[in-house]
Amino acid sequence: MQEKWWHRATVYQVYPRSFKDSNGDGIGDLKGITEKLDYLEKLGITAIWLSPVYQSPMDDNGYDISDYEAIAEIFGSMADMEELLDSANQRGIKIIMDLVVNHTSDEHAWFVEARKNPDSPERDFYVWRDQPNHLMSTFGGSAWELDEASGQYYLHLFSRKQPDLNWENAALRQKIYDMMNVWIDKGIGGFRMDVIDLIGKIPDQEITGNGPKLHDYLKEMSLATFGNKDLLTVGETWGATPEIAKTYSGPDNQELSMVFQFEHIGLQHKPDRPKWEIEKELDVPKLKEIFAKWQLELGVNEGWNSLFWDNHDLPRALSIWGSPEHYREKSAKALAILLHLMRGTPYIYQGDEIGMLNYPFKDLTEIADIESINYAKEALGEGRSEQDIMASIRHIGRDNARIPMQWNTSPQAGFTTGQSWLPVHPDFQEINVASALADPQSIFYTYQHLISLRKTEDWLIYGDFELLDTEDKVFAYTRQYQGKAYLIAVNLSDDTQPFSFAGQPEATVISNTDVASIFQNQMMQPWDAVCVAIRY
Ligand code: TEU
Ligand code: CA
């Protein structure tokens, strides 16, 4: 197996709109991110996944791109982008751009032309049909929108302002590769590929994910763009199984470095039900089963895992799977230790490193996300109460992750000097970066420690994984590498749990608790988390 820089990297996701506002308009921007690079360098991360900053009418906060080679004015200029790239690169931090090429904005020049002129080459860059079929949009309603001028319908698997691109068209594919090369030449560190498993869709057969040509397109893309460069590429693939993940990330397949799989995220809602039908309690045995399966099936010669708890589309993991009321700091550290010591590249969503929480949204007037708004409209139409709908949105809606980053105790949490676009969390006096940095016991330093371990510990990067048979609520595994062995054990509950271990614990690598007492008393206190070197 060949070593790659991204095996050792920890990636930090920045949601630009909510990270740091530099000019007081209430919206985070590129200069704001550049201002905070010192902070990210201190945390120790070596790559930033930047959610989209391209020109966009912002129907879906930038995941609707109207020009891939221009920067949205609210985020700054191309000069600001280049300054961010330079400053980050100087600090050894690579910038991973969000590549959204399953669809564009309806305001992209291609779509404008396609709509205006049905005989133009651009018409075939999109998917047009005389009759809609049953395909549905992720954001509610039919996936087909009538274009009145031509009488035809275009496909949009997301909002009607996000028309799907037609990857069958070779000229379109080449234009996308050219655009990717422009960004590669600017010195970026790679791409996070938005809903990439949809590009092989066959609309007439109602096939969306994992279409038959998906992997041909990715191989072609790789050959035309990043294939011979040392870049990190990560695909967002909601429908990936370990088998599928191997085709993407197998070292000989020449596709992607890794993919995001979402099987564990499925535990947030009722089995096989929409995300709005929430599951109140984490099924820990199921979580163990899912993580162990991915750890074991993606061996170092077969592919590579990504590791994440949440992102800009998901609720804060701490809010729904941790214990925010009773053990906020301890459970945040426990979740971090559990995730970061498995095999794969970890991704931290902004604010997780200080234990930020879901927002107590009161009513629909506080909601900005198109997915939640469309869901609420639909559900109200079906006669459900706003109270009911808000309970779902409060628990699982995407705005939870999108509230402003909490920097300090000044007004608006130091995010902006103006009025922030989404409300600042009322808990910011307690939960903010300045307080975290001032407290050597804070969650921040647990993350800093975990990130630094990746830089030196080969066992952590390449060691074998083995799940241990423990009490339901205890998640314990070992990592073994070249004669060394490590035990990681985490109590994912508010109760004490019995825990016995046959081997001999030696040095502590990292913990959030009194390690000796766990082994003496064979008992784990609530949210205890520990990693120790062991002798069998
Ligand atoms: O997300 C893909 C996606 O399917 C999400 O809409 C997801 O299903 C949903 O948020 C969970 O309920 C990507 C981006 O990450 C997301 O922000 C975009 O809205 C979407 O693609 C369209 O580009
Ligand atoms: Ca701004």
TrEMBL record:
It catalyses: Hydrolysis of (1->6)-alpha-D-glucosidic linkages in (1->6)-alpha-D-glucans and derived oligosaccharides. Keywords: Glycosidase, Hydrolase. Gene3D superfamilies: Glycosidases, Golgi alpha-mannosidase II, Oligo-1,6-glucosidase, Domain 2. InterPro entries: GH, GH13_cat_dom, Glyco_hydro_b, O16G_dom_2. One of its GO terms (biological process) is oligosaccharide catabolic process. SUPFAM superfamilies: (Trans)glycosidases, Glycosyl hydrolase domain. It comes from the Bacteria. GO terms for molecular function: alpha-amylase activity; glucan 1,6-alpha-glucosidase activity. Its EC number is 3.2.1.70. Residues 13-402 form the Glycosyl hydrolase family 13 catalytic domain. The keyword Hydrolase applies. The physiological substrates may be short isomaltosaccharides. Belongs to the glycosyl hydrolase 13 family. This is Glucan 1,6-alpha-glucosidase. It comes from Streptococcus merionis. The lineage of its organism: Bacteria, Bacillati, Bacillota, Bacilli, Lactobacillales.
